[in-house]
Amino acid sequence: MFSRQLARRVVLRVPRRWSHSPAGLAGLNSVTEEDLAHFAKILPSSSILSTLSPSATPSSELEPFNNDWMDKYHGKSTTVLKPRTTQEVSEIVRWCNQRKIGIVPQGGNTGLVGGGVPIKDELILSLANMAKVRSFDDVSGILVADAGCILQSLTDYLAPHHHIVPLDLGAKGSCQIGGNVSTNAGGLRLLRYGSLHGSVLGLEVVLPDGTVLDQLTSLRKDNTGYDLKQLFIGAEGTLGIVTGVSILAAPAPQASNNVMLALPKFENVQPLYKEVKRQLSEVLSAFEFIDRTVYDLAVKHGQGRALNPQDIEGAECFVLVETSGGNREHDEQKLNSLLESLMLAEEPLINTGVLASSPAQFSALWAIREGLTEAVSKEGKAYKYDISVPLNKFQEVVDKTREHLRSKDLLHENAVKYVVGYGHVGDGNLHLNVVAAAYTPEIEAALEPFVYELVASYKGSISAEHGIGVMKTHALQYSKNPTSIEWMKKIKALFDPNGIMNPGKVLP
Ligand code: FAD
Ligand code: MLT
Ligand code: ZN
User: Fold this and answer.
1) Statement to judge: residues 231 and 146 lie in one domain
2) How far is the CA of 33 from the centre of ligand 1 (A)?
3) Does the keyword Oxidoreductase apply (predicted)?
4) What separation in Å is there between the alpha carbon of 57 and the centre of ligand 1?
């Protein structure tokens, strides 16, 4: 029987500073009608949305740009520009730098930490009009694309060439490759394809003074000193605007399969993961954790129904396992013998499972996992904590948070409705979601710094894959020591001495 390790507690001797007023916007100017007149010399009128005259766009048309996906963060920008070329981006940025106007680069606006919307009235620079594939080499697998290409459209583009983007996430229909790079998005198959720090080969970036940094190399190997592109991967638009991406696409698997497994208790997840890795080895491509409460929310909100309700009575959680390989018969044989051994074990780790028997069922099983974010948002307002903690602490984190909220008398219909957990097991990444009736200062005060202190006690990370944005600037200290933050600030000042690039984001 698997035994849980006791959490090693870290006693926090120095009280951490706790304030949440975004820094970095002082000294910046608002966009004026004169600025608009200048932008009209760079862009056609169809690329300018502004409530200022002479554009006088109704403010309702700017709402999708000013409000984030969760409807949690709200900006007041008067102006959205949609350049079509790197040269246009460069000219806009050069002007904003001279005029000290803050710029928020915006991709698909699916970010979950408020990084893609303004804090006040910064100018929004949308990459939506830069959406062309520049080149693809089906021998090397290297794809070069504009930053504004939507992830799904790149997947569709590569399909006839028998390649895939080495990244997949539930927001693929809206998020852009430039946004993915800028958040260093992880997603559902990081376990197989690794992080964007490995698969991105080159970037084209417009720096805060308007200079175009052309690092759009399509070389697999390039050991010529500092690897500058790495700085922009995960910089969340604070160092420059990514306009082009060179990425190593992966060969499309010849065969993919998946199975949803129901587990009687959370303690079985870790031994199950070990066993699945041992038996499936090179064909394993995803291993995702879903707790019972969030599974039920997905079913309730129509994201799909994977297993028969009678079969999953008493199941405490679920995992979605995917295989991708080069030989269907071989892969299926491996998966079937895994399932057989799991079901016939003396002390079975699983209650039951559903193996996809058609492409439609394969998609339906993924729809449940990919639909969790939406299900949670349909249920209420989600406080999302995207954390790295040891796998055997996933459930403990969810339970402790729930108990903490109960002790504050906040666990009821009119405050916090559910505390749920799901995530990427192979990456040690738990998505702790607190689903509330509304975003309120009282709930936030109960959750923060409580959750961050809890993460620190496990020596975890306060952001595994969503980034810092505006949500966690004040909590950066939990995952970065003062020396690291000092050097991050020096790098920011070096690239962006006027502080125009996504002000108030990432750095405290
Ligand atoms: P935006 O939201 O527009 O921007 C995100 C940040 O990047 C902002 O700080 C913005 O300023 C900056 N930015 C955007 N484009 C550029 C650019 N061209 N140059 C410089 N800076 C730029 N994240 C994961 O890691 N894994 C997941 O599995 C995952 N699943 C998701 C599922 C759903 C349903 C949703 C809504 C979100 C999910 N996310 C996930 C979060 C989100 O980070 C990703 O969707 C995505 O990487 C953001 O891309 P975007 O184009 O929408 O960027
Ligand atoms: C996911 O894994 O589903 C995403 O990171 C989005 C989320 O945390 O809801
Ligand atoms: Zn995730």
Assistant:
1) yes
2) 31
3) yes
4) 26
